[in-house]
Amino acid sequence: MFQDLTEKLELITKKLKGHGKLSEKNISDALKEVRRVLLEADVNYKVAKSFIAAVQQRSLGQKVLKSITPGQQIVKIIHDELANIMGRTEATLNLSGANPVVLMLTGLQGSGKTTLAGKLGLYFKKRGHKPLLVAADTYRPAAIDQLEVVGQNIDVPVLSDRSKSAIDICKLSVKHCRDHGNDIVIFDTAGRLHIDEKMMNELLEIKKKTKPQEIFFVADGMTGQDAVNTAKEFLGWLDFDGVILTKLDGDARGGAALSIRMATDKPIKFISTGEKFDAIEKFHPERMASRILGMGDIVSLVEKAEEAVDREQAAKLEKKLRRQQFTFQDFYDQLQQIKKMGPLDQLMGMIPGVQGKMLKGLNTDDRAFVKIEAIINSMTRDEKQRPQIIDGSRRKRIARGSGTSVQDINQLLKQFKMMQKMMKNVNKIGFKGLPIGF
Ligand SMILES: Nc1nc2c(ncn2[C@@H]2O[C@H](COP(=O)(O)OP(=O)(O)O)[C@@H](O)[C@H]2O)c(=O)[nH]1
Ligand SMILES: [Mg+2]
């Protein structure tokens, strides 16, 4: 997420922290650089300007300059002000007092609405709700098919009717929910490549007729300023309640995430970081500021682990670790759990102290997992339990069986030994039921 922006900011903050003393000139030079970096990330210039002014004002106080660690204090101020421009406190969701709760997704075509309907559906299902998805993009038959496939994937019902208008199907869905016990209904509305009046009027009509608790503007996080401009236009027509940023994985530059709150005065409520249905998180400005500055986000990491980890299995593993019986089978099971948490490079980025540039050369590709899995699968039961018996000829056999090389096997055995050692240490300080390495 925002790798380029993070790397550049890390350089600047490192320099700041390196100074024993800071002069006003040091600070204004650094802030000029920060401003340039923000603009390069496609942050709105007014947002960048007011951000720099706020940091400057707080940094130049005598207290900061005369403190023992002025550099660190300024980095803290940058962090706080970054969180400020993104909204400071976590936005709440309005889920009470309605039966069903109506959530409406709006935005341009391709911004990620249909995929998001699935992500939100799964998100609420996991939390004990009974969501219903509504195919309100009635112009392209393929759009209805797409949502139906999404529904099948996450095992959440989809309401569609190819003979009805978007407004009618939305109205109908509210009654459908009451009849079928669905407590949350999510409208997947039509998008256009550009805003047009007809589309806006249709959305307005749906709003009037169904009175949604939350209308979300779904913004493609990769698009920077464009997303902000579109958001403002939608706001003028529709007065939405919150923003959801998608596609913050990959090459997103950060401009949309950092500007959209100030530009619309509406909170960002969720972010999405991938195409899979579990790639959704509630938005926390403070945590996001930490991630952008390369400080990691341990809280989100632990939450992800808690969601993915099978408690019973974790307890079993803990017992084994206490008896120091960690085997390749356990290693394999742990890999499965880590895989459930999401792409490796995203997880690594949440660990404090792991800097953007460290991730660059590293093979955090999920293909590395596949190789390890293949190797473990080619071991006999006995070998998995007692890796010390894996001698030269066994290594050759495993390499052949898994389509890898003896070198790969050697490397994995070495890693496994290291992990066993690490596990002993973890054992000493107390195992908290988290997957290996975290
Ligand atoms: N990388 C990435 N791709 C996404 C994300 N959300 C959606 N997409 C992709 O963006 C494309 C458009 O998504 P779709 O849900 O059909 O957008 P819609 O036109 O607004 O309904 C699809 O190829 C999705 O797989 C995301 O968070 N990350
Ligand atoms: Mg769609």
Tell me, rounded to a whole number, the average pLDDT: 84
Largest sheet: 8 strands, mixed
Helix content: 55-70%
Radius of gyration: 25 Å
Low-confidence stretches: 429-438
CATH architecture of the largest domain: 3-Layer(aba) Sandwich
Span of the ends, CA to CA: 20 Å
CATH homologous superfamily placement of the largest domain:
P-loop containing nucleotide triphosphate hydrolases
**Top-tier CATH class of the largest domain:** Alpha Beta
Q: Spell the H/E element sequence.
A: HHHHHEHEHEHEHEHEHEEHHHHHHHHHH
Strand order of the largest sheet: 3-2-4-1-5-6-7-8
Give a verbal description of the structure.
With 438 residues, the protein is an alpha/beta fold. It folds into three domains: 3-85, SRP54, nucleotide-binding domain (Four Helix Bundle (Hemerythrin (Met), subunit A), Up-down Bundle), CATH 1.20.120.140; 101-283, P-loop containing nucleotide triphosphate hydrolases (Rossmann fold); 307-429, Signal recognition particle, SRP54 subunit, M-domain (434 Repressor (Amino-terminal Domain), Orthogonal Bundle), CATH 1.10.260. Helix content is 59%, strand content 9%. It contains 21 helices and eight strands. The protein has an eight-stranded mixed beta sheet, sandwiched between helices. A hairpin with a 7-residue loop joins strand 7 and strand 8. Helix 2 (24-40) runs antiparallel to helix 3 and helix 10 (225-238) packs parallel to helix 11 (255-264). The two termini are 20 Å apart. Mean pLDDT is 84; it is low at 429-438. The structure holds guanosine-5'-diphosphate (GDP) and magnesium ion. Residues 107, 109-115, 191, 246-247, 249-250, 272-275, 279 line the site of guanosine-5'-diphosphate.
